[in-house]
UniProtKB/TrEMBL annotation, chain A:
Name recorded for this polypeptide: Carbohydrate ABC transporter permease
Keyword flag Chaperone: no
Membrane topology designation: Multi-pass membrane protein
Segments traversing the membrane: 7-35, 75-96, 108-128, 202-223, 267-290
PANTHER family with a match to the protein in the record: BLR7065 PROTEIN (PTHR43005), INTEGRAL MEMBRANE SUGAR TRANSPORT PROTEIN (PTHR43005:SF2)
Localisation: Cell membrane
One Pfam family here: BPD_transp_1
CDD domains: TM_PBP2
Organism, as annotated: Terrilactibacillus laevilacticus
From TrEMBL, chain B:
Pfam families documented for this protein: ABC_tran (PF00005), OB_MalK (PF17912), TOBE (PF03459)
Keywords from the UniProt entry: ATP-binding, Nucleotide-binding, Transport
Full protein name: ABC transporter ATP-binding protein
UniProt domain ABC transporter: residue ranges: 4-236
PROSITE patterns according to UniProt: ABC_TRANSPORTER_1, ABC_TRANSPORTER_2
InterPro entries membership: AAA+_ATPase, ABC_transporter-like_ATP-bd, ABC_transporter-like_CS, ABC_transpr_MalK-like, ABC_transpr_MalK/UgpC-like, Mo/tungstate-bd_C_term_dom, NA-bd_OB-fold, OB_MalK-like
Length: 294, 374
């Protein structure tokens, strides 16, 4: 009997930690999303004032044009950043897989953007785009792309492009790292066989490399998609969701509704909707990842 | 079905002081089955990869059908290669693996289908065409690798230790199949192996290499009967040739305390080459030592105690000593016990002499002419 219980006893501390830091906040957030806290957060303190209103908060979110605007921006952000990160990451991985002088150094340098905290990255890019002193602002002006120094972050489209650029700069390295690791595990003799079979470099890339990298590509894409979908800090630092909701991604909207406007139930409901999206990605990811490992 | 000529081919790897392949000269005829054999690191695989175009040739000329191929890409050399680890495309079915090269060449679909199915039929792969390599056994994968080479009808087949990953039984079976295939297709084949049995059984000519240098080129029979040096003598034949220190006077051969009478022709060889009464190395193949069940006292017999007797089925391997060297004998008797005292005889007509220092074979001048012609 004791033998049977013992393993579970050992699990208790870990379970308690998970309960406190993960499970409890999630359950609390779900709880909040089902009660009416409109205009008065203090209702939470008194159980007598809790009024369960079912899915009303969810319906409010789905009826809100701000949510739909935000969802569209988030999807654009996700598709564009993940797309570019994949193409650039694959290209970098292929280059770094070749032998050349100081390859180790270049591999190390490549990881720097990814190793930087997002906050640092965001501040860095904010300065690049600064209306008065920004490197990129100046470059664009001097090359004649813009009419003098312009405030890139204050126009809807250019601000979205700006935050996407910053995200791509940082996370391409992650995709490159995963693909490079996978590339290095590919057997060399298959490529020699393909050479003898007459495949040209592009044919080798599309008929051999990419199909063999497929599992790694999927993992990288899904991880990046989940993260891009939840992007928050880069928006928070660089644009604050502006201008006029032009860069208001879903995470930032949830934060703004709850923490800035005190609209906790709306924010909680929005957070749950986002969780459903990310959970779908997570399930796909886990399915793929564990399929080959049994 | 091509003639291949290699002239003074050398290979030096970057950052390497010494040559991996030193001055390789070989002329291969149409339909020949050439086996490059030698211990690991002898440069045989490198030579093959230079022919394939997977390694640059540092110096020398490679001619296929009289065209210089040094700077021609692998795909334009009209060769097919079978790799040691098969190198099948893991994401493609057996059919697609075999069809890949043809698809790249933009050969029409019905022709591809015809060729793949024909190869599959010859190799007994018809029922596996839709499987992926992962779902095949080692022997089947090897067949797919062969099939992939076959469908292209190449001028030259290159095989890099294709059987080394198979178990012993499958290996001998595939050996016979490859030989059969070669006879059927008639393509010039260059085959690399470290296994002398494969070399002996399959080759029309064997090229024995050591430390990047060709030691000897010849038919299996030539290299077995007339090895040019101690290395070749020891490498070809299983178990290995016995090497024993001896001195020979103009009447008898002395090994340790034992004295033997040997054929006059053999003494003549030593006489003409000036090795009489000098220390030499004697080479005796295990199969040239026989068990004498009845007690005889001939000039070519000696009595000895058997250390270990290994029964091989129809024959036995006996481990004993002669002079101060160990001696292995392969005899027909199958009832000899460990520690038994028996009489062995040596067929001195078939012995070889080697220089103690240079390890080159000691042979009369007309004999050496014979070898150089072959």
């Amino acid at each position: 009997m004791i033998k049977k219980i013992r393993p579970y006893v050992y699990l208790v501390p870990a379970f308690l930690v998970i309960l406190c830091v993960t499970l409890a906040p999630i359950l609390y957030s779900i709880f909040i999303s089902f009660i009416d806290l409109t205009k008065n957060v203090h209702k939470l303190d008194n159980p007598n004032l809790w009024s369960f209103i079912g899915f009303t908060n969810y319906i409010n979110v789905l009826k809100d044009s701000v949510f739909w605007n935000s969802l569209v921006k988030t999807i654009i952000f996700t598709v564009v950043t993940v797309g570019f990160e994949f193409i650039l990451g694959l290209a970098i991985a292929l280059i770094l897989n070749e032998k050349f002088r100081a390859r180790g150094l270049v591999r190390g340098l490549m990881l720097i953007p990814w190793a930087l905290p997002t906050i640092v990255n965001a501040v860095l890019w904010k300065w690049f785009y600064d209306a008065d002193h920004g490197t990129i602002t100046g470059l664009l002006a001097h090359l004649g792309f813009t009419d003098g120094y312009s405030n890139i972050l204050s126009h809807t489209t250019s601000a979205l492009i700006a935050i996407m650029t910053a995200d791509i700069w940082k996370n391409t390295a992650f995709v490159a790292l995963i693909l490079l690791a996978a590339l290095q595990s590919l057997p060399k003799d298959i490529y020699e066989a393909a050479k003898v079979d007459g495949a040209k470099p592009f044919q080798r890339l599309f008929s051999i490399t990419i199909p063999l990298l497929a599992p790694a590509i999927l993992v990288a894409l899904i991880i990046r998609t989940m993260e891009a979908f939840k992007a928050f800090d880069i928006v928070y630092i660089m644009t604050g969701g502006g201008p006029g909701g032009g860069t208001q991604l879903l995470s930032f909207l949830a934060y703004q509704q709850s923490m800035v406007f005190g609209n906790f139930s709306y924010g909680a409901a929005l957070a749950q909707i986002m969780s459903i999206f990310t959970m779908i990605f997570a399930v796909i990811y886990i399915r793929i990842f564990y399929k080959d490992r049994g | 079905m091509a003639k291949i000529v290699m002239k003074n081919i050398k290979k030096r790897y970057k950052n390497s002081e010494s040559l991996t392949v030193k001055d390789f000269n070989l002329s291969i005829d149409h339909k020949e089955f050439i086996v490059l054999v030698g211990p690991s690191g002898c440069g045989k695989s490198t030579t093959l990869r230079m022919i394939a175009g997977l390694e640059d040739i540092s110096e020398g000329d490679l001619l296929i059908e009289e065209k210089r191929m040094n700077d021609v890409a692998p795909k334009n050399r009209d060769i097919a290669m079978v790799f040691q680890n098969y190198a099948l495309y893991p994401h493609m079915t057996v059919y697609d693996n075999m069809a890949f090269a043809l698809k790249i060449k933009k050969i029409n679909k019905s022709e591809i289908d015809l060729r793949v199915k024909e190869a599959a039929k010859i190799l007994g792969l018809e029922e596996y065409l839709k499987r992926k390599p992962k779902a095949l056994s080692g022997g089947q994968r090897q067949r797919v690798a062969l099939g992939r080479a076959m469908v292209r009808n190449p001028k030259v087949f290159l095989m890099d230790e294709p059987l080394s990953n198979l178990d012993a039984k499958l290996r001998s079976q595939m050996r016979a199949e490859i030989s059969k295939l070669h006879r059927k297709l008639g393509a010039t084949t260059i085959y690399v192996t470290h296994d002398q049995t494969e070399a002996m059984t399959m080759a029309s000519r064997i090229v024995i290499m050591k430390d990047g240098k060709i030691q000897q080129i010849g038919t299996p029979k030539e290299v077995y009967d007339h090895p040019v040096n101690r290395f070749v003598a020891g490498f070809i034949g299983s178990p290995s040739m016995n090497f024993i220190s001896a001195t020979c006077s103009d009447t008898a051969l002395k090994i340790g305390d034992l004295t033997f009478t040997i054929p006059k022709e053999k003494i003549e060889i030593l006489k003409t080459t000036g090795y009489l009464n000098k220390k030499i190395t004697l080479g005796i193949r295990p199969e040239d030592i026989h068990h004498e069940p009845k007690e005889v006292n001939d000039s070519n017999t000696f009595e000895t105690t058997i250390d270990v007797s290994e029964l091989m089925g129809s024959e036995s391997l006996l481990y004993t000593s002669l002079g101060d060297s160990t001696l292995i004998a392969k005899v027909n008797s199958t009832n000899i016990a460990n520690g038994e005292k028996i009489t062995l005889s040596i067929d001195f007509n078939k012995i070889h002499f080697f220089d103690k220092d240079t390890e080159e074979v000691i042979q009369s001048t007309n004999q050496s002419k014979l070898i150089s012609i072959s």
